[in-house]
Amino acid sequence: MKHWLETYSIIDFISVGILLTAVTLNAFKSIESYVKAYTINSWLLAGLIAVVGVLVNESHLYMAAVLTVLTKGVLIPIIIWRIIRRMRVAHEVTPYISNTLSLAISGILVAVVYASLQGGIFVTGFSRDALQISIAVILISLFIMITRKKALTMVMGLLFMENGLFLAGFSLTFGMPTIIELGVLFDMLMGVIILGIFAVQIKRVFASADLDKLTVLKG
After folding, report:
1. Which residue in 88, 69, 65 sits closest to 170, CA to CA?
2. CB of 24 within 8 A of CB of 37?
């Protein structure tokens, strides 16, 4: 099993899948598509953790993979879907710039990350590519948060960024102790619930989830 995983570089394939789910956010026009992409992204992240667990024979990584699936791949998407139904908002993402330009900028970000880290970084983890991809995912997620108007879309960008940060830390350390991972996942879950409540309140008060409407607070 280990030989097969190493031979076919399954870690790099999964890492590329994580990157692609982040890049394709720029092509989506609905919040539902964002949630589906995040779900796939989280499942791929859990799969990568499980594969590394097989390669290094660490049982706590199996638990980390299961926790990632349950929280990021199941529970958080369910919460987001319920928030979407409760807000009853227009499901269009409404970016500040076109999807074509967003895709082009995301491609440039990926190229810059690979060009910058190609020869000048020392990696002690299991994959240089996984680290580069994690940084690219973080930058793309930040770009999504900056260029989208809807509050819920920014929440999705934040969730993608957290997955990128998790992958970056994991690629360098082979995973943190289980108790720390539990704490991080619990904090993220509480953060999603709180941000969801804020988004619902913004919709209730301003009759819109568009953050441009908050400019009426200036004075």
Report:
1. 65
2. yes
Q: What percent of the chain has pLDDT over 90?
A: 16
Whether the CB-CB separation of 49 and 15 falls below 8 Å is answered with no
Evaluate whether 80 touches 86 at the Cβ level (below 8 Å): no
Q: How far from the centroid of its chain's Cα atoms is residue 115's Cα? A: 22
The answer to whether 173 and 120 have CB atoms below 8 angstroms apart is: no
Is pLDDT above 70 for 143? Answer: yes
Tell me which amino acid residue 72 is.
K
Per-residue tokens: 50: 């499980």
Structure tokens at 206: 């301003």
Residue 183: what residue type?
G
With a pLDDT cut of 70, the percent of the chain lying above it is: 67
* Angle in degrees, 0-180, between the axes of helices 59-68 and 31-56, rounded to the nearest 10: 170
- d(Cα 209, Cα 192) in Å, to the nearest integer? 16
Burial readout 105-119 (b: 16 or more C-beta within 10 A, e: otherwise): bbeebbeebeeebee
**Alpha-carbon span 163 to 43, nearest angstrom:** 11
CA dihedral 85, 87, 91, 92 (to 10 degrees): -160
Side chain identity at residue 132, one-letter code: Q
Nearest to 25 by CA among 164, 153, 208: 153
Q: How buried is 122 (Cβ within 10 angstroms: 0-12 exposed, 13-18 middle, 19+ buried)?
A: exposed
